[in-house]
């Protein structure tokens, strides 16, 4: 393992999250560019110093212990942002002012190679201050992902990537109008899916099974579809699930009724079922119509309190292509004051633990900070609780997986969603990762600015 001065950010790609090494002198803009990439849907792996280890021909990037998710901002100090524990490095970006800004510059930056930590890594040069830096990086990463996905087969005989790696992923996207179904399709398209919206239900199975689909597909279906009804859609879903060449996931995008009413009112859009009745009645009618689909859904994402970057990360964590065959486990911390995560399969309440909110030195910190995590873990009740929690989960997870569950959401809650639940969720996610489960981690209410407003 080798440690270098660099910043590493992971971005979604058609073959899963891939890491980018940002190389440059101090003050060259590595952290600023990392923030822009995370805001565009990525995750921070490590800032300033990165640990690299060669694995199967690629470098695996990890942060230094204790610096997970921390980025250094000039004049502001350290800040916590969305993170991944590790990522395979697919590309390095050398930050050079003025690079690639000539009038005749190609859209895709010219690529060279450098020897880094014992591996040859493709490198491009970019001006980090350029407005086009992020899209040019995305172009280069997409090309790199395609190169990594190429099989060693003669030209013309290559099977589609998803079919070679197993069944072709098919995601049916439905949910409440205004909850984010269209946005979900756009995000899945960014993740490498072919997105099809408002396909007539009688063409659904034919489009998937008879088409020459060389990539994963996401299909949107909602009450705007002609002759839409839950029963026929579930019948089509059953036909698709019976095909062993397909891996079918039903995604339901949900939202609280009050939030939906506010969204429709603010945007002045008309609800599809409220043409001749009040908005609230249209929402209620749609919820009744979609109830069988929500009950049948493999993945439910509630967007009531989600910002767009969090929604993107949630979809990427659960539905990124080239995931391992194991069931994905999604851990989220939350505030009871805001409300339960409606997509949760298992909910655990940690409000019985000693509260860092009442320690003036710890109050402005979060459960991601070592001081708060140590404070929570020092509670005499924490060790037996965590032992019981992991003792419960360890035999349950394989049973859930054996029943065919693709995703399991575990929610950890405290009063404010900043201290106890965050520290516990971090520790639980680490425990799950050590056991080899694919883990996603989100702190839903961490950034709600709750300091001093209520115990956390």
TrEMBL record:
Domain of life: Bacteria
Residue ranges of every copy of the RapZ-like N-terminal domain listed in the record: 170-320
Record keyword Nucleotide-binding present: yes
Residue positions binding ATP: 175-182
InterPro entries from the UniProt entry: Hpr_kin/Pase_C, P-loop_NTPase, RapZ-like, RapZ-like_N, RapZ_C
SUPFAM superfamilies attached to this UniProt entry: P-loop containing nucleoside triphosphate hydrolases (SSF52540), PEP carboxykinase-like (SSF53795)
Keyword vocabulary terms for this entry: ATP-binding, GTP-binding, Nucleotide-binding
GO terms under biological process: regulation of carbohydrate metabolic process
Residue span(s) of domain HPr kinase/phosphorylase C-terminal: 17-84
Molecular function GO terms recorded: ATP binding; GTP binding; phosphorelay sensor kinase activity
Protein name: RNase adaptor protein for sRNA GlmZ degradation, contains a P-loop ATPase domain
Origin species: Tistlia consotensis USBA 355
Phylogenetic lineage: Bacteria, Pseudomonadati, Pseudomonadota, Alphaproteobacteria, Rhodospirillales
């Amino acid at each position: 393992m080798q440690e270098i001065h660099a910043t590493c950010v992971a971005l979604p790609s058609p073959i899963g999250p891939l890491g980018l090494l940002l190389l440059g002198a101090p003050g060259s803009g590595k952290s600023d560019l990392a923030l822009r990439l995370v805001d565009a849907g990525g995750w921070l792996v490590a800032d300033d110093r990165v640990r690299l280890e060669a694995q199967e021909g690629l470098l695996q990037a990890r942060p230094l212990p204790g610096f997970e998710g921390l980025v250094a901002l000039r004049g502001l100090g350290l800040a916590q942002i969305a993170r991944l524990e590790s990522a395979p490095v697919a590309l390095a970006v050398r930050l050079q002012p003025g690079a690639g800004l000539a009038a005749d510059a190609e859209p895709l930056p010219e690529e060279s190679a450098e020897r880094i930590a014992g591996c040859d890594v493709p490198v491009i040069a970019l001006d980090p201050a350029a407005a086009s830096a992020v899209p040019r990086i995305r172009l280069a990463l997409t090309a790199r992902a395609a190169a990594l996905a190429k099989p060693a087969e003669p030209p013309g005989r290559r099977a589609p990537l998803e079919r070679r790696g197993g069944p072709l992923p098919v995601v049916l996207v439905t949910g409440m109008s205004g909850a984010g179904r269209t946005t979900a399709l756009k995000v899945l398209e960014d993740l490498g899916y072919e997105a099809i919206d408002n396909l007539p239900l009688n063409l659904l199975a034919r489009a998937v099974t008879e088409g020459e689909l060389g990539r994963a597909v996401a299909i949107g279906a909602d009450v705007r579809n002609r002759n839409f009804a839950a029963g026929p859609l579930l019948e089509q879903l059953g036909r698709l699930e019976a095909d062993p060449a397909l891996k079918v996931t039903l995604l339901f995008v949900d939202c609280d009724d009050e939030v939906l009413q506010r969204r429709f009112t603010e945007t002045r859009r008309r609800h599809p079922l409220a043409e001749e009745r009040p908005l609230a009645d249209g929402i209620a009618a749609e919820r009744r119509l979609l109830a069988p689909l929500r009950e049948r859904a493999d993945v439910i994402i509630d967007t009531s309190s989600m910002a767009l970057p969090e929604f993107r990360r949630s979809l990427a964590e659960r539905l990124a292509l080239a995931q391992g065959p194991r069931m994905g486990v999604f851990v989220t911390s939350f505030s009871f004051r805001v409300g339960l995560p409606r997509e949760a399969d298992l909910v655990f309440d940690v409000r019985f633990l000693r509260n860092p909110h009442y320690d003036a030195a710890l109050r402005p910190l979060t459960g991601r900070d070592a001081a708060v995590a140590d404070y929570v873990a020092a509670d005499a009740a924490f060790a037996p609780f965590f032992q019981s929690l992991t003792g419960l989960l360890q035999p349950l997870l394989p049973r859930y997986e054996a029943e065919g569950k693709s995703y399991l959401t575990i929610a950890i809650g405290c009063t404010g969603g900043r201290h106890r639940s965050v520290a516990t969720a971090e520790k639980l996610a680490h425990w799950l990762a050590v056991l080899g489960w694919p883990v996603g981690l989100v702190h839903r209410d961490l950034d709600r600015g709750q300091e001093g407003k209520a115990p956390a």
